[in-house]
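Checklist before submission:
- one chain only
- standard amino acids only
- sequence pasted in full

Submission:
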Amino acid sequence: MTKTEITETIKMLEKFANIPKASHVTTFVGYRKMKDGSRKEVAVTIRDFGENAPASSRYVAAAKWKGGHAASGDGPSIQAALGTIKWAWGGTGDMTA
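Returned file contents:
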């Protein structure tokens, strides 16, 4: 889907299906290398709220990895949203590469 098609579909969902704040979702799954050399499976979901969303938070990126850890961030672009994710957690283990 193009960005325009995403925005138009979100408008139709809001109008016809009464679904406010609908978004287009894309999920990526991969393995992230840890400092200790191990790998952790990570699922990253990108949500696009369309062109009519506030520019500063059109995209939301959320990362989840085994052990119940999760982090998210938002921004005006996918790159900005991914860049705001805190890839580390307190306790044992570290998501920092």
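Reviewer check: The CA atoms of residues 25 and 41 lie 19 Å apart.
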